[in-house]
UniProtKB/TrEMBL annotation:
The protein's name: Glycoside hydrolase family protein
Gene3D superfamilies in the record: Glycosyl hydrolase domain, family 43
A Pfam family that the UniProt record links to this protein: Glyco_hydro_43
Signal peptide, first to last residue: 1-21
Assigned protein family: Belongs to the glycosyl hydrolase 43 family.
InterPro entries, A to Z: Glyco_hydro_43 (IPR006710), Glyco_hydro_beta-prop_sf (IPR023296), Glycosyl_Hydrlase_43_Enz (IPR052176)
GO molecular function annotation: hydrolase activity, hydrolyzing O-glycosyl compounds
GO BP field: xylan catabolic process
Site (Important for catalytic activity, responsible for pKa modulation of the active site Glu and correct orientation of both the proton donor and substrate): 160
Keywords: Carbohydrate metabolism, Glycosidase, Hydrolase, Polysaccharide degradation, Signal, Xylan degradation
Catalytic residues, chain numbering: 33, 206
Amino acid sequence: MTSNLKTLAAGSLMLAASAGANPLFTDQYRTADPAALVHDGTVYLYTGHDEAKDNKGFFKMNDWLVFSSTDMVNWQRHGPRLSVTDFSWAKGDAWASQAIEKDGKFYWYITARHKDDKPGFAIGVAVGDSPLGPFKDARGSALITNDMTTDTPNDWDDIDPSVFIDDDGQAYLFWGNTKPRYAKLKANMTELDGPIEPLDLPDFTEAIWVHKKGELYYLSYASDFPEKIVYATSSSIKGPWQYRGILNEVAGNSPTNHQAIIEFKGKDYFIYHTGAAQPDGGEFRRSVAIDRLYYNPDGTLKRVVMTSE
Ligand code: FUB
């Protein structure tokens, strides 16, 4: 992490925590693309950072933020903990990410636009000794590049990593825009272990999140555009995945939607972003919100009721 970021992070840690009505943060940050990690009785929320001045142009995203809470109501702001400039191979666009713990280390998988030697979006991974870092590029090169998976002219193929560790300790990386894919990760969490496999998911756009509840695996994703979050289930992390329908409708005036699903202290949560929750919010000025998630007795999910609308 750069020294500038360290200073910012330390400064923002001093800010008072606030109550957790939707959207979560209405002060200094526009937040998007949430991912959450439960560790040692605390939820760590990793988000993108929308810095666009209005909703007319495109995303302006340069770094990733971290927040934490022990009660899902009061959130501590830890500021930017990773930036595109921490990846020597990247040139911009700090898009969706997810962090996970393995053997006492914390791996933060991120999306960024690769420099011109390998044009297109790429996925990288940073590593740290705590959920708050400090984090550094774990490889010095991207883990997934567009030239590894270039089966369409879409240079956004390789975005939105979701990492999952199965009960036997095997880690998997899922990702994709338009073409969903997954691959095994080696025990070091920084290299692929085997081929990249396609996934068969109807109307897939992006934003995969994989989790397990009981014996069932869940793969949720953004579908169509404007995006709804839909989901599929399987009895194996390798599929086949059975499509189960809509979990969350289009969120406010944001055509993108992006979710994280966690269980924390006996309750289930659906974490997402919306453009509607703040007066000048919208497509490129999004805000993270959290609502409860409820499972039916047969393992299917009830549709999320958005209190951010
Ligand atoms: O925030 C930039 C991109 O928009 C993300 O990578 C997608 O999931 C969508 O939210």
